Amino acid sequence: MKPNHASTQPIGIFDSGIGGLTVAHAIVRYLPKENIIYFGDTAHLPYGDKSTAAIQAYSVKIAHMLLQQECKLILIACNSASAAAYELVKEYIGSKALVTNVIDPTVRLLKEKYASRHIGLIGTRQTVNSHIYKKKIDELNLNIRLSSHATNLLASAIEEFGDHQVLDSLLRVYLSHPNLRNIDALVLACTHYPVIKNKILEQYVSSNHNTIDIIDSSDIVAQAVKKQLETHNLLNANGVCSKHFYVSDYTESFAANARLFFGEEITLEHYPLWD
Ligand code: DGL
């Protein structure tokens, strides 16, 4: 960290779109005194089907923008970008800000509570194909059996329909996949999914006839960010906070859906990062 970093500087949060607002909301709940700058790259949504190289290029440019806004910590609130670009963003930012992702705090929770268990995971194609969770779990020798399934259409369906029963048939198909049988817990490895976590549990139970824990990482990530700021003496005690929510492509439908993901009314502003 630069020695002149101040606790009043903002936390920068980014995602492929507005799904990361689920994490942003948890950050606001756990850290109500912090200044927040959120950037949703709606111009490139979804990241889940993009190449690793494309996600890396987008992520570095967004991180650069957040650094220009003097963020003290940059949170990659997207599993797909955390999988594809965390190491690169960290290297790019160096000591100019703290950088964190949504995967490591979840893996730490698995270590604490689920060692030697059978865990299922659903996420985008990018996240699942990266095998990032398995690599991190194996590095820690947790003896967890991880069974993943890519649920490609789910993020877009949630944006389109929200927590609507039309998602039930899609969930039934995804959650009855043989990879997800006989698991003890299911990791929601996409920041869009917490919006429908009750529906995911319901559909899992009705398709598999057993109940499981649902692991929604938003709260875990917010707690990890709080701890990281505490460790670096960067918690904002000031209490005068501002919040800005930017998107790279503004449409009425993103604006209308922002409430669904954030859980309360917010105003999205257009930030023409790619123009
Ligand atoms: N929110 C993103 C994630 O956590 C998924 C949405 C997308 O494909 O862009 O992976």
Automatic annotation (TrEMBL):
GO terms for molecular function: glutamate racemase activity. Its EC number is 5.1.1.3. It catalyses: L-glutamate = D-glutamate. Pathway: Cell wall biogenesis; peptidoglycan biosynthesis. Substrate binds at residues 15-16, 47-48, 79-80, 191-192. It holds the Pfam family Asp_Glu_race. It is an enzyme of class 5 (isomerase). The gene is racE. This is Glutamate racemase. Belongs to the aspartate/glutamate racemases family. Gene3D superfamilies: 3.40.50.1860.
